[in-house]
């Protein structure tokens, strides 16, 4: 009989998703007659998105939806009903002798409204959950799993809910950032990128956006590119390391938006905060100023600047 250490070593470190079959299904079977006294197998229904929510109602809806989603994800992971598994991106794997959850805890979701439109609100959220699972070959609960849904961005309004996880992203890294004048160039640490912005696909595969970045101080085009995110955001990293006045312009069909901003010191300006929301009803450019575990993830793609290819879909 393998030891607990051997069992855990054979499993993925984070238990990132898994298909689900009960031990009696024939996919795998218990090697012990000891069974858990109680297991967590209930699916929690997701709340219905509100039709005309206030900002607070949007936050409350997102908090409830995220808690339900993480609960169901962990229930379905090992031995729980497959119908619990939330739709959306995720991978599937399972330790051969791991059964249903015996304990499950979902933390209270942290949420913040970052933008408002005529049709609804954009809300960012962070939520974590953990579970213990029964190991059939040891006859006890011995495996644990933790699921983190950090910095998820939601649109809530008109009875709709669109969820975009930041952990599924496509990187676009500029190896040589824009730096036209030594007097304007910041000497950033090697592990800090220049200006980074993200394009979020709230229209799914129809979320292409034509983006231009213009240096208003030097009257020069810095970047011109089309991004076509699908599941998660397109992340443009290291666009410029020059201080000055800039304009970010975004076109999605007939909808064109612009946003002017300043970059000065390394801690002055939206170096990592600009988010483009290709929304269900309109496109928005938002300077997301939330902090802590609701802050825009920093260095997501720049940390991988030595990887190839330069544009690559990755997930946590």
Which key phrases capture this entry?
9% helix; disordered C terminus; 2 domains; 15 strands; elongated; Immunoglobulin-like; mainly beta; 316 residues; 37% strand; six-stranded mixed β-sheet
Overall number of strands = 15
Describe the global form. elongated
- Look at the helices and sheets and give the structural class: mainly beta
Count of alpha and pi helical runs: 2
Radius of gyration: 22 Å
What percent strand? Answer: 35-45%
Mean residue pLDDT: 82
**Strand and helix order:** HHEEEEEEEEEEEEEEE
Strand order of the largest sheet: 14-13-7-10-6-15
**Fraction in helix:** under 10%
Biggest sheet descriptor: 6 strands, mixed
Q: How many distinct folded domains? A: 2
Measure the end-to-end span.
Answer: 33 Å
Low-confidence residue ranges: 1-31, 304-316
Account of the 3D structure:
The chain is mainly beta. The chain folds into two domains: 162 residues, no CATH class; 148 residues, Transthyretin/hydroxyisourate hydrolase domain (Immunoglobulin-like, Sandwich), CATH 2.60.40. It is built from two helices and 15 strands. Strands 14-13-7-10-6-15 form a six-stranded mixed beta sheet, with no helix packed on it. Strands 1, 2, 3, 4 and 5 form a five-stranded antiparallel beta sheet that branches. The chain starts with a helix and ends with a strand. The N terminus and C terminus are likely disordered.
């Amino acid at each position: 009989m393998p030891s607990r250490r051997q069992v855990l070593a054979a499993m993925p470190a984070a238990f990132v998703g898994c298909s689900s079959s009960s031990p009696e299904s024939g996919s795998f079977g218990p090697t012990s007659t000891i069974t858990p006294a109680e297991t967590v197998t209930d699916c929690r229904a997701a709340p219905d998105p509100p039709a005309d929510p206030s900002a607070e109602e949007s936050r409350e809806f997102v908090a409830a939806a995220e808690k339900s989603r993480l609960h169901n994800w962990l229930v379905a992971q090992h031995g729980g009903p497959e119908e619990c598994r939330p739709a959306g991106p995720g991978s599937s794997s399972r330790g051969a002798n791991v059964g249903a959850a015996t304990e499950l805890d979902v933390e209270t979701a942290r949420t913040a409204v970052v933008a408002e439109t005529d049709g609804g609100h954009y809300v960012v959220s962070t939520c974590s959950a953990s579970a213990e699972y029964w190991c059939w070959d040891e006859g006890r609960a011995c495996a644990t799993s933790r699921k983190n849904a950090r910095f998820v961005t939601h649109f809530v309004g008109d009875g709709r809910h669109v969820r975009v996880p930041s952990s599924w992203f496509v990187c676009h890294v500029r190896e040589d950032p824009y730096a036209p004048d030594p007097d304007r160039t910041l000497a950033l640490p090697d592990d800090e990128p220049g200006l980074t912005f993200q394009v979020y696909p709230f229209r799914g595969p129809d979320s292409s956006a034509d983006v231009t970045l213009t240096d208003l101080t030097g009257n020069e085009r810095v970047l011109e590119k089309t991004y076509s995110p699908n599941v998660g955001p397109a992340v443009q990293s290291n666009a410029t390391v020059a201080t000055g006045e800039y304009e970010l312009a975004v076109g999605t069909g007939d909808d064109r938006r612009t946003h002017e901003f300043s970059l000065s010191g390394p801690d002055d300006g939206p170096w990592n905060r600009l988010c483009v929301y290709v929304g269900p009803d309109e496109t928005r450019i938002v300077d997301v100023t939330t902090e802590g575990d609701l802050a825009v993830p920093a260095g997501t793609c720049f940390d991988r600047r030595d990887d190839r290819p330069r544009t690559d879909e990755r997930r946590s």
